[in-house]
Amino acid sequence: MATNGGIDDNEWQKLPCDQKVQHKAWKARMTGYEECVTLFRTQNSDQSPEFMKYVSLMKKFVIDSNENAREKALDAVFAFVEEANVAGKTVNEVSSGIITKCLNARSKMKERAFDIILMYIEIEKQVEITEELVKGLENKQPKIVQACLELLRKGLSEFGSKVLPIKPFLKQVIPLLDDRDKTVRDESKLLIVEIYKWIGKQTLMPMIQNVKPIQMQELQTEFDKLDLNGIDKPRQTRFLRSQQELKQKMEETNIPSSVIIEDPNLDMQEDLDPFEMLEPVNILERLSKEFYEKIESKQWKDRKEVLDDLLTLLTQNPKLTSDTDYSELVKILKKIIAKDSNIPVVLVAAKCLTALAKGLRKSFKNYAISVIEVCLDRCREKKTNVIEVLRETCDATYPGTNLEQFSEVAVTLLTHKTPIVRQCTQQFLTKCFAMATQNTLPKKILKIYLSGLIKNTTEADASVRDSAFESLGMLWKCLGEKHVFPNLTDLDDLKLIKIKEYAEKSVLLNLRGEPRSNAPLIVSPTPAVTKKPTSIEIPIIKSVPPKPAPVIKKKPAVVVAVASPAVAAVPAAKPSIPANESIEEKKKESRPPKSSAPVRIAPSRSKQTLVNTSLSNPKINSTKIRPNTAPISKSATISSTQSRNQRLVPVLLPPSTKIRPKPPLSTNRRSSIDLTASNLQRQSTSTGGSTSSLSSTNTQSSIPCTRLQTPTSSTTISILRSVSNDIISSPTPSNSNPKSRIPVRTMPMTIIKKSSA
C-alpha cells in the first residue's frame, strides 16, 4: 500500500529515527516523533551525542503542518528539553514556533506547549522566554495574546518574581487592560493582580495610574480581596535546576509548598526592590521656564504654585537620574525651609526634598548633611504638622550619609538653645542608632554622641530628658552593655534604670527601616501596643446614676367644717393658674393694703365637705359627684385665680377715708368684682360702718349673684382661698342638704376690716 508520499510503508519504516522525522509522509514523521520520545528518555547522560543530532530539527518539530503529527512532535520536544543538556540552544527557535503554531490550537496541544515553555524556564532560560512572550503580546490573534499572558502569569506564580522578572513585560501588559477582546482584558487583569502580589501597591499603582477609572475600580476590587499576609501571600512553588538542592531539602523536612517558610536559608521570596524596576527621569528638563522666577516671588501663592508643580512631577517620576546636578534646586528648597515665613510653602518645600532624596537615594549624599541640619533647625516651629514633615525629610535623607559624617552637626544641634530642636535631634538619632552596628558606630564616634546625650539627661525640660534616655537606651541595645556602660559611670542609679527600661523596649532596624530579621525576638508588635494608648484617647465613661423618677405629690383633701359664723381656715393645696391668663394681666392687678385684722367669713349652708383639689387626678370618680344646682359666679371664679400672696376682696373703710381709685380692668370678670365691692361699700355706709349688721342671710341677699350663661361641668369644683391657702367656702353639690330646695349660690369671698372707731 502506497503512502501519500508514493513510498511503501515498509520502506520508510526501515529508516532511522532522525530521517523519519524529516519524511514527507506525516505518518512517517509521527512515528519518528514517537520513537524520539523513547530515545531521549533512555539516554544514560544528558550530554549524549544523540541529542546533538536533533538540535537543528527541534524547530521543525513544533511547526509540523499536520496537527496529529505536531501533537506527537511536542511530546518529543518536551522530552528533549527535559533530558538534553544542549536544549538551551533551541529556546528561541522552539519558543517562537510554539507561540505562532501551538498556542491557538486544540487544548491538548496547548497544554503540552505550556509545559515546554515552563520547562525552558526551569532550565534557566527565563530571559529568552520572556522576550518571546513579549513579542507574542503583539500578535494579531487574540488567542495567542491571551495564551502569552497566561504563560506569563503561570510562570510568575510558580517561579516567582525572583526567577521571572516583572520589569521586562509590565509596560506591555498595562495597555492590554483596554483591549477590544474580552478574553485578553480578563487575562491581563489576572496578570496585574499576580504582579500586585509580588511588588505591592506602592510600586504598581504609579505605573497604572493612567488606566481608565472603571478598570482601576475593578483592579482595586480584586486587590482588596487579597490577603497578602495569609493565604494569598506569594511563594515559589517550582524551582530551577540550580535550586534542586533547596527543593530536596524541603522534601526531606516534609514542608508542603503551601506553608510559608520563615527560615532565611529556605527563603523562596524574591529580594525585590521595586525601585530598580522604574525608569530614571531627569525632572530638571521638565521644569517650567518660570520656575526659578516664581520661586523667588514675594507672593506666597506664586511660590506655592511652582512648588506644587514640582512635587507633582517628583511624585509621577519616583526614580531620578543620578548623573544630574540638583545643587541649585536643593539650595532653593533649603532656603525656603530655613527662612520662609509661610508655613504651607515650607511644608511643600520639605515634601519636595523628601521626594528628591528618595528618588536619588545614595546619590543624594552630596546634599544630605546640609538638608538634615536645616530641617532639624526648623523644628523650632513647634507645630506638629511641620515637625512630622521635616522628620520624614530627615529619614529619607539619612541613607545618603552616616553617623560619622553627621557627628559634627549633631553635636551642634544637641546644644541648641531651643529645647524642641534638641528633642527632635535626639529622636532622629534614636532611629539612626537603631540601624547602626559596631562597624558603622565605632568607639571614637560613640564618645562624640554620648557627651551631648549625657548632658541632656540633666535638662529641665522633661521631653529633652526622656528623648536623651531613649537614645542612650537604643545605643545600649545596639552595641551592648559592654561598650556603653563604661561611659555612663557618672550617672546615678535611677538614670541607669531608666536607660535599661528604654533598652528593653527598643527595636533594631535594618537599612530599610524595618525590624531586623535576625532579632532574637519578634518585637514588632510591642511598639504598636505601647504607642497605642498615647495616640488614641480612650474616653473614660463616668457612671452617672439614673435620675430618680419624679415624685408626684398628691394634693391633700381638705375638710371644711362650718360650726359658727366665724370659721377657721384650713390649709389646702395650691390652685393651678389658668393658662389663658397672661402675665401682663397679673402685673396690672392692684395690690390692696395688707391687714392684720381677723378675718370673718359668711357662713355656708353646706355641711362638712371633703374636697380634692387635684382636678387632674384620674382617681376622681366623676359619677359620684352630683351636678351643681347653680352655676359658679364670675366673682367666685376670679377669686379662685388670684395670687396667694394678695387679699383681692374689697374692704369697708370709714366714710372719712379716701379710697384710691383703681386702674381700669380689661376683663368682664374684674368688673363684676368692682360692682360687688361698690354695693358692699354703700351698705357699709348706710349702717354707719358697723360690721355687726352684716349677717350671712343679709349678705347673701344683698349681693347679686351672677350666673354663667353655660352650665358648668359636673366635675367642676370651685375653691375660694385666702393668703394662707385657707378655704373660705366650698359649696359642693354632693355635700349639700338634699332636702333643701333652695339653690346653692356661690358667693364672693368677703373680708371685712374692723373700723378704726
Protein model, in words:
The structure is a single chain. A two-stranded antiparallel ribbon has the order 1-2. It is built from 32 helices and 2 strands. The N and C termini lie far apart (168 Å). Helix 12 crosses helix 13 and helix 20 runs parallel beside helix 22. Among the domains are: 232 residues, Leucine-rich Repeat Variant; 222 residues, Leucine-rich Repeat Variant (Alpha Horseshoe), CATH 1.25.10. With 757 residues, the chain is mainly α. GO terms for molecular function: microtubule plus end polymerase; microtubule plus-end binding. It comes from Adineta steineri. It is found in: Cytoplasm, Cytoskeleton. Its main location: cytoplasm.
CATH architecture of the domain at 12-243: Alpha Horseshoe
CATH topology of the domain at 12-243: Leucine-rich Repeat Variant
Low-confidence stretches: 1-7, 255-270, 519-590, 593-653, 655-659, 665-740, 749-757
As laid out across the biggest beta sheet, the strand order is 1-2
Shape: elongated
Classified by CATH, the class of the domain at 12-243 is Mainly Alpha
Helix content: 40-55%
Strand content: under 5%
Query: What is the mean predicted local confidence, pLDDT?
Result: 74
Rg computed from alpha carbons, rounded to a whole number of angstroms: 53 Å
The DSSP helix count reads 32
CATH-assigned homologous superfamily of the domain at 12-243: Leucine-rich Repeat Variant
The main β sheet shows up as: 2 strands, antiparallel
By DSSP, the count of extended strands is 2
Terminal Cα span: 168 Å
Secondary-structure-based class equals mainly alpha
Keywords: Cytoplasm, Cytoskeleton
Biased composition (Basic and acidic residues): 583-592
Region (Disordered): 579-714
Domain TOG: 4-232, 276-512
